[in-house]
Amino acid sequence: MKIKYSFLFAILLFLAWPPIGINAFIFIAFVPAFYLVDACFQKETRETKRKSGNALFYYTYLGFAIFNLASSYWIWNASAVGMIIAVLLNAFLMTLPFIFYKKLLQITSQKTALIAFVAAWVSMEYFHMHWDLSWPWFTLGNAFASSSTWVQWYEYTGVFGGSIWVLAVNAMLYLALQQVEWKNKNLKVFAPALLLIIIPIIVSKIIYSNYTEQINPCHVVVVQPNIDPYNEKFSASSENEQMQKLLQLSAASAKKNTEFIIWPETALASTIAEEQLANDPKIIQAKDFLSAYKNAVLITGASTYLTYASAQTTTARAFSNGQCCYDIFNTALLIENGSAIQKYHKSKLVAGVEQMPYPKLLKFLEPFALKLGGSFGSLGTQKTPSVLYNSAGIGAATVICYESVYGEHCANFVKQGAQFIAIITNDGWWGNTDGHKQHAIYAKLRAIENRRSIARSANTGISSFIDQRGDVIQASKWWEATSLAAAINLNEEITYYTDHGDYLAHWMIALFVFMLLHLVYFKFIVNKK
To answer: Is there a single domain that holds both residue 172 and residue 279?
Structure first.
């Protein structure tokens, strides 16, 4: 029976997740996991206590490993080792709140333990968003990207509001199932849980229906060059051909009133010295192209490096001759007709591929970084996001690839004055799998949280325009060389979430710490007495 619970909650989570996205299943997905806790400890004695604890860990871990594997198998296309680590580590972290819940059941009421479980889970999600092995892909609130009209209130709560909603409904349904009298058809106990599902959806639908964008158009072109990242993109022999392709696709959609042309992540593939940006042949070509579009600027991804006289950062590396030092960056550049070139360095790096986690502790693992699809050492970053502005003062939040999964990070751009969000990415690493679909659909949540239009340029995958309600108004197909153009509305208003960030997670962390201290006090002080 225990293994059936494992498979059941894994399957329900998988069916609820994008791109399948049958979100109704997520409201019952954790109920089998709560019953699994009961099954493991139903007949517990002093002698069987350790075995019961082990069983809970193994069966819960199995269920979450199945879910993670089914929903992120596509990482294998980029890195087999990376996928295995992501699945095993994510499943482990998802198991920990259930261990905490089980421990609390021994010292407090079931309702209190369930509230603490919600706090522990959200604390785990927040922690997973901020450490060096960060992988917040499966934050529960992300599941509603496939039903964005259900969560228009994310402009107040962000995705952690969705996580709390999911867990609260599951806990209430689990308690109701324990109280229901099926023979007497006494089903009133389900009413609170059903209302908790229905009311937020109704509120969201009302917000959606009443939200109207202010007419403040900005003509934007996004380019999808569809260059194979494995066999073509980083080949020096095809660099000129790639540049010509980008220029031709841009010209196909650009107009005299175009204000932004957006190319994908690392569109300029060869590494450029930041001291020599203005003299780089590709950038000179881009400026020549822009001379025909007087109102336009180009935002493009690039690989850049910055040299230092001495090691100034923890990521600085020595040149081949042993002399100091330089940092490599995954960079967004804003190029205009004038001499100025603005830049933003990617801040949220992919562990193992772009970043060596905890470099002081794990420096001995650098030789294995290539096996994860990365390179020796870590890329450089900048501490705070910076907005890229055109000459008219329109600010773009230029979010590079993986950064678009971080709600508060994107909100920090908007807080600094960004009037729309430009996502530049290269989703070709994963092939035609669920990976690029999930990544594209998550962008809808960033639009809702900040009420900002989104222009998304992917090397291949899905390039798109998304309005401020999270609706996709135009999108490309997979493995298609194309460009899209749209007049998106700018916005300067700040939402509650943009202003306050992940405040709900902070509250949950405070509650979790309180309950953890309560558990420690009971175990080590009360029990001894």
So the answer is: no
